[in-house]
Amino acid sequence: MNSVQSKDGTTIVFDRTATGPALAALVSKSRACWQKAMKDLADVLPNRQHLTVPGQTHTVKASVPASVSAEFFAKSAGTSTIALAHQTS
User: Fold this and answer.
1) Strand 48-53 relative to strand 22-27: parallel, antiparallel, unpaired?
2) How many whole angstroms separate alpha carbon 61 and alpha carbon 63?
3) What is the pLDDT of residues 10-68, one digit of tens each?
């Protein structure tokens, strides 16, 4: 496992690295802690795009992640990584 420190000192742990484009996406009605986590993640990823999907809650409509992912992959020509945040508790 690898780790990086966010600007506020929070440790972000990860197990793989990538060099291609990355998408850090979440919904606009996420809790503040998830919004901060995804922004911090986007801040340390090279060649990244940070996207907040407006008007969606944690129970996002199924079509939304599919369309966001498809658009991102189309622009990235298959060389991309997606970081998904999911609240477990």
Assistant:
1) parallel
2) 6
3) 887 776 666 677 788 888 888 888 888 888 888 887 778 878 888 887 777 778 888 88
- CA–CA separation, 52 and 65 (whole Å): 11
The whole-angstrom separation of Cα 32 and Cα 34 is: 5
> Distance between CA atoms of 64 and 53, rounded to whole angstroms?
8
Can you give the pLDDT at residue 84?
A: 53
Residue 58: φ, ψ to 5°: -60, -25
Which two structure tokens, joined as six digits, stand for 38? Answer: 């995804």
Please name the residue that has the structure tokens 């795009």.
49
Residue with tokens 């992959």: 73
Type of residue at 78: G
**Per-domain boundaries in the chain:** 17-84
